[in-house]
Amino acid sequence: MTGEKNARRLRTAFFGERGIRPGWLFAIFVALNYLLGPILDYVLPKIHFPAWDMTWLGMTSNEWLNFAAVALLTRVMCRIDRTPFSSHGLSTSPGSTRLFAQGVVWGIVPSIIIVIPIWLAGACSFHGLALAPAELIKYAALWALAFLGVGFAEEFTFRGYAQQTLSRAIGFWPAAAILSSVFGLMHLIFKPNEGWIDPLSVALYGMFWCLTLRRTGTLWFAIGFHAASDYTDMVVFAEPNTGNAGKPLPGHLLNVEFHGPAWLTGGPRGTEASMLVFAILALLFYFFHKAYPAKRAVEEGVLISN
Predict the structure, then answer these.
(1) Number of helices (H) and strands (E), helices first, in the chain?
(2) Which of 97, 95, 226 is CA-nearest to residue 159?
(3) 1: pLDDT confidence band, cut at 50, 70 and 90?
(4) How many Å apart are CA 70 and CA 37, to the nearest integer?
(5) Which of 10, 49, 158, 224 could form a disulfide bond with 44, CB atoms 3.0-4.6 angstroms apart?
(6) Cα–Cα dist 120/249, whole Å
(7) How many alpha carbons lie under 13 Å from residue 287 in its C-beta half-sphere?
(8) Could you count the other beta carbons within 10 Å of the beta carbon of residue 262?
(9) What is the C-alpha separation between 11 and 229, in angstroms, rounded?
(10) CA 247/CA 241 separation, integer angstroms
């Protein structure tokens, strides 16, 4: 009898009415991600796959590979928990293209706005185009492909299956807070010479992208925003990045020199580490809340519930 009770308790701990409990599904997904890393680290050099670096080729190859790997793992998990792949943020509904385009615009505008007070304060200066016209068009397109990969890979990793499944276990916003904190922490751990502002702003951007997911029901807005924001910062405005030893990316479009105090410009970390970023984030939360109200999301049937 005791054995039957223990077996029932064990079964109840792992299985619910819909099969494996969401918390365990999330743990399996994280474990598979963790195991896949060393496998790729072993296999990719054998086939002479481009190493990850801050060049358009290194970034494009590896970010799109990361997205493909997460998409494959998501497919596997969807078979296990019997959920459609499209329910994890990448639905192909008629409004997907529109949401992506809106995200691109919303991503570009804050990156322009944050530079304006820095320029007015005399902390940055513009020195024309960095490339000849033909090269400028070439690198503009190549870097766009690279940062589109960043948008897909990072958004689908942190706000795709992981966000949806953990939400079922503990609620949408607790899951968003945990995953966004991990997102910021990874920037602190894996990028050299990071301070506290950059990881914090990245975590808050993660929370903002979770808000866009909740109000639109998909990741398309977040992907467009993420890709366009990083592209404008690092490719258009040639902002430095600690991942590139505090220097601008090769093939950036404008010659921009940042020479003001680090609290204002972000120093070698770029404007993501400027104190101004918190004002930008506050405005983003406010205006997105107004432009995409919860009431409208409920009426359209896209609001992601707890």
Answers:
(1) 12, 4
(2) 226
(3) low
(4) 11
(5) 49
(6) 24
(7) 10
(8) 16
(9) 46
(10) 6
Q: How far apart are CA 304 and CA 68, in angstroms?
A: 25
Query: Over the stretch 14-46, which tens digit does the pLDDT of each residue have?
Result: 776 777 899 999 999 999 999 998 999 999 999
Alpha carbon separation from 153 to 69, 157, 167 (Å, rounded)? 9, 6, 20
Q: Which residues contact 25 (CB under 8 A, 6 or more apart)?
A: 77, 80, 81, 165
Classify residue 17 by burial, with Cβ atoms within 10 Å: 0-12, 13-18, 19+.
Answer: exposed
pTM of the model: 0.93
DSSP state of 107: H
Contacts (Cβ under 8 Å, ≥6 apart) of 80: 19, 20, 25, 28
Given a contact cutoff of 8 angstroms between Cβ atoms, the answer to whether 249 and 147 are in contact is no
CB of 210 closer than 8 Å to CB of 163: yes
Which of 153, 155, 140 is closest to 56 using CA atoms? 140
Name the region of 238 (left: φ>0; alpha: ψ -120 to 50; beta: rest): left
Q: Give the Å distances, CA to CA, from 107 to 4, 21, 125, 286.
A: 56, 36, 22, 15
Q: How far is CA 45 from CA 59, 66, 217, 282, in A?
A: 16, 15, 38, 43
Nearest to 158 by CA among 92, 106, 207: 207
